[in-house]
Every structure is written in structure tokens, then in C-alpha cells.
Specification:
Blueprint (H helix, E strand, L loop, with lengths): L1 H10 L3 H11 L13 E3 L2 E3 L3 E3 L10 H5 L5 E7 L12 E4 L4 E4 L7 H11 L5 E6 L10 H12 L5 E5 L14 H22 L5 E5 L5 H14 L3 E4 L20 E4 L3 H15 L4 E5 L5 H9 L4 E4 L1 H6 L2 H21 L1
Parallel strand pairs: 3-4, 3-13, 4-7, 7-8, 8-9, 9-10, 10-12, 12-13
Antiparallel strand pairs: 1-2, 5-6, 6-11
Helix pairs in contact: 5-6, 6-7, 7-8, 9-11
Length: about 350
């Protein structure tokens, strides 16, 4: 109710300014009491299946406030080794008629030092995913250096680490989804993970975040690499370069990745394709286009163990979290009853 009153005011502001104001106000919201069904995934126990997607809290500044909304887990970042401003403004655009966003943020963040300092001040100790990427000025052939630096630095604090190779807003980043590049990157990170596991006495799961704009052969190739390197999860999906569903709308021609409801079918189809290709050998996290509780349950039906929200929160506010938790709980109960 409060968000419904505040939304017109927020939507009258520049999207980035509104984002910062809403994030800052999250600490004023009452804690959610929606009960969910616990979920086991990636070897971790989640209080419920609904998480926050990366990108909303890039610098891990609002972990305690966001945890109050009832999420079963939070994913923060994307963080890069060094601070970077991201792409020039304006770089975030609302498409209200489609309940969608287009962004070309470009991994704007304060870098690892600021990110880890923020996390050191957070009191919440729930399931925390940390999403890592490369700096824009790091040559693509040296991307592994940036991912390795991030993994080593965040390892002790993370419940799991997401390797983001699918943002469309960092030049050539999606080239890392090609077979040769992906093989080299995952081999390096998994070898480093084993050394870190021995050092810290804890094996932190790895997740791979993929694009929705993949051909069938690419899905199979990525799934093979995930299986070969024993990556624990695939997050399907990031934003899309497609403009299906928003043609002719104001700002629809802006460069960047499209998220929100028009992404839903494409993201869910990619999720289903990975479910078929992996055959249960890695967990799946469904993200993209969830703006109603039923959309979250749809992701579970497509093979996901967990779901994540971002753009839907811009349009629906915190109430969407509880709605999705309830929908996932009911879907789990129905599936359990059917299996008996």
C-alpha cells in the first residue's frame, strides 16, 4: 500500500535517482512475516525460494534493509576489482506500459575495497550471493584475471559466488560464453576455488549467469561446461537484446538490456532448455520477467529450484516478494501432494 502511494512520486524522478531513494528508504519498511517453504540448492539451505537478483544493490550498501523484505537470499553486485563509473547517463529507462526497463549501466560500482567494507558493516547473516564481473577496460583475453581477483577477495564472505558473463552492457563480455573462452575461465576459477576451499575450510558454490539470447547449440555447450567443471548452479537469465513486446513504445529503441515482463517468456524458455540439457546435474535459478506470484511458480515449473526478482520490484514494490513466496510455497505443496 505504501509503495502504491509512493510510486507516482518515484516515477516522476529520473530512474537512477528514484532507485537510490527507494533503496535508501528500504530500511524504513516493516519486516516481512510471510512464511515460505525451505529449499535445498547448491548444497545450501534457503528459508524460501525467492531471492533478490544482482544489480539492485551493486555495492552491498543496503543488505540489512533489503533482508527485511522477506527474501530467502540476496545477491549483491556486480562488483569488479576496481571502481568504475559505468556508461554515460542517461542509462536507465522505464517502459511502464510493458512493466519493463532498459538499462545500459555497465557494471557501475565502487570496486572491491568499498564493496567488502560495506559487507563488513552488514549484520545480516542469511544466504548471500556475490556477483562478480570484469572491469570495462580489462581486455577480454585477460578477463580471467579480474574474475579470479574477485573470487579470491569475496570468497570468505559469500554463501555462493555468481560468475556474470552475460551482461550486454560491457563490450565483448558475452564472448566469454563461447566454448573456448568459457572453458578457460571455468577451469581457472574452479582450480582457484579448490585452493580457497582448502584455505578457508569451506567449498563455496559457484553459479554461472547466462544470457537469454542463446541458440540451442550454445545452451548445450554451456551446459556441458557446467557439468564438466561441476558448477553448482546456472542463473537463467540476464537481460535481453531483443525488443519483442516493446516495439514502438517510448525509449524502446534505447541501447541496453531489456528486463521485466517482456523478457519473461524468453527467459523461461532458456531456463527450460538448461533444465533439459543439464538433467538435474546443476541447480537452476529462474530470473526474468517475474512481476506476479504466478510468474515465480512458472519458473519452478520450468525447472528452477529458486527464483530472483528485480524489475518487478520497481513496478510492484515489496509486496511482490511476499506474493512470490506464497506462490512458490503453494506450488511446492501441490507438487509434494501429487508425488505422494
Amino acid at each position: 500500500m505504501l509503495y502504491a502511494l509512493a510510486r507516482p512520486l518515484l516515477f516522476a524522478l529520473d530512474p537512477e535517482r528514484a532507485h537510490a531513494l527507494a533503496l535508501g528508504a528500504a530500511r524504513l519498511l516493516p519486516a516481512s512475516r510471510t512464511a515460505g517453504s525451505p529449499v535445498q540448492a547448491m548444497g545450501l539451505q534457503f528459508p524460501n525460494a525467492v531471492g533478490l537478483a544482482a544489480g539492485l544493490d551493486k555495492n552491498a550498501e543496503r543488505v540489512d534493509a533489503l533482508a527485511r523484505l522477506g527474501f530467502g537470499f540476496l545477491e549483491v553486485g556486480t562488483v569488479t576489482p576496481r571502481p568504475q563509473a559505468g556508461n554515460p547517463r542517461p542509462r536507465l529507462f522505464r517502459l511502464p506500459r510493458a512493466r519493463a526497463l532498459i538499462n545500459r549501466m555497465g557494471f557501475n560500482n565502487g570496486g572491491l575495497d568499498a564493496f567488502m567494507a560495506n559487507l563488513s558493516r552488514a549484520e545480516w547473516r542469511g544466504v548471500l550471493g556475490i556477483n562478480i564481473g570484469k572491469n570495462a577496460d580489462t581486455p577480454i583475453e585477460r578477463a580471467g584475471d579480474d574474475y579470479a581477483a574477485c573470487l579470491e577477495r569475496v570468497y570468505a564472505r559469500a554463501s555462493y559466488v555468481t560468475v556474470n558473463i552475460s551482461s550486454p552492457n560491457t563490450k565483448n563480455l558475452r564472448d566469454l560464453q563461447s566454448p573456448e573462452s568459457l572453458e578457460a575461465l571455468l577451469a581457472r576459477l574452479c582450480a582457484l576455488r579448490e585452493r580457497l576451499a582448502e584455505r578457508h575450510g569451506r567449498r563455496v558454490p559457484l553459479a554461472l549467469k547466462v544470457a537469454p539470447d542463446l541458440e540451442a547449440a550454445q545452451v548445450r555447450g554451456i551446459a556441458d561446461a557446467v557439468r564438466r567443471h561441476r558448477i553448482e548452479a546456472v542463473i537463467a537469465t540476464n537481460t535481453t537484446l531483443s525488443r519483442d513486446g516493446v516495439e514502438g513504445l517510448p525509449d524502446a529503441a534505447q541501447a541496453g538490456g531489456l528486463s521485466g515482463e517482456p523478457l519473461r517468456a524468453r527467459a523461461t524458455a532458456t531456463l527450460s532448455a538448461f533444465a533439459a540439457a543439464l538433467g538435474g546435474e546443476a541447480d537452476l535459478i529462474g530470473v526474468g520477467g517475474i512481476v506476479e506470484g504466478a510468474h515465480a511458480a512458472e519458473k519452478l515449473d520450468a525447472g528452477a529450484s529458486l527464483v530472483q526478482l528485480y524489475t518487478g520490484l520497481i513496478y510492484r514494490g515489496p509486496a511482490l516478494v511476499g506474493e512470490c513466496i506464497s506462490a512458490c510455497r503453494e506450488r511446492s505443496r501441490t507438487a509434494s501432494a501429487a508425488s505422494r
